[in-house]
Design a protein that fits this description.
Rossmann fold; alpha/beta; globular; seven-stranded parallel beta sheet; two-stranded parallel ribbon; 12 helices
């Protein structure tokens, strides 16, 4: 099929573009410019230059074009922002950006619409030992500074489900797709850890593989958890990453100091604990992670 991919030059977008092309799909990649068009062209995709937050510009850019599907992988997250205000651009992309991409999908004649979501939408809190599934409440306000982010996650999913065949992918926390950047941060001891709960994780390559399957076989109006098989804490993963990359172990901060230095990151790295099921994606999409946990995902071959 012909796929209009928003976010094709990101750390998930690049492996996703490669996998879509390898699966025989045609990719039209949306980029704001800069090095984006050259990057997409080098991958074998057709670049389109526009800003997803500028509806007029976006619709002008796709005028006269056609596609079978739109995939929304846009964020403004080069790294996890330390403070809540750093999430504002991504919240806008999940709210206004999704609306604009749905308008583009209508112009393109694309019936299928897949949006990026995230398991944090189940709530920034300790969920205990119960395993969360797609039937659990998602995006509900919890009366704190995380509410705008939860509202944005809910908005992108609810909007996606208005498409003829809308699908939401609730990814785990990404790792593995930006080793040079993470190695540099770890080497400078700029990636601290602290005591915290369990999170669902997913290697970028596994996330890309699941996205292709969801695009091809996902059911309309459905959300899918895309996580690996073994939840792990923030401290566990980044300590293991430092060992795999041959850098010093990350500095360990007491929770109060971590919250002071990075209040937004602390909401999930310390305050959140969740076990998330990937059974629905396995059952309906035929997807299994190639890296069942971060242990396999951080090996040199990965």
């Amino acid at each position: 099929m012909k796929v209009f991919l928003a976010g094709g030059t990101g750390v998930l977008g690049i492996p996703l573009t490669r996998r879509l092309l390898a699966a025989g799909h045609e990719v039209i990649g949306l980029t704001r410019g800069g090095a984006g068009p050259a990057t997409l062209a080098a991958l074998g995709a057709r670049p389109v230059v526009a800003d997803a937050l500028d509806r007029t510009s976006l619709l002008r850019a796709v005028d006269g074009m056609s596609a079978d599907a739109v995939v929304h992988e846009l964020t403004a997250l080069r790294a996890a922002p330390t403070r809540h205000r750093g999430m504002v651009p991504t919240d806008r992309l999940r709210e206004a950006g999704t609306a604009n991409l749905l308008a583009a999908a209508e112009s393109l004649g694309a019936g299928r619409f897949v949006t990026q979501s995230i398991i944090l939408g189940y709530g920034y809190r300790d969920h205990g030992d119960r395993v969360l599934t797609e039937d659990d409440p998602f995006g509900q306000a919890q009366g704190d500074a995380c509410d705008p982010h939860l509202a944005a996650m809910r908005a992108t999913e609810q909007q996606a489900f208005t498409a003829p065949a809308g699908i939401a992918l609730r990814y785990g926390m990404f790792y593995g797709g930006d080793p040079a950047e993470k190695r540099a941060l770890l080497a400078r001891r700029r990636l601290p850890v602290s005591r915290g709960g369990l999170l669902g994780w997913i290697h970028h390559d596994d996330a890309a593989a699941a996205t292709v399957l969801a695009l091809e076989a996902g059911r309309a109006g459905q959300a899918y958890n895309i996580v690996d098989d073994r939840p792990a804490s923030w401290a566990d993963l980044f300590t293991a990453m430092a060992a795999a990359y041959g850098t010093p172990a990350p500095p360990r901060l007491p929770p109060w100091l971590f919250r002071l230095a990075a209040p937004y990151v602390a909401t999930f790295a310390i305050d959140t604990s969740m076990r998330v099921s990937n059974a629905k994606a396995a059952r309906e999409l035929g997807w299994r992670p190639a890296y069942p946990s971060y242990v396999e995902g951080l090996t040199p071959s990965a």
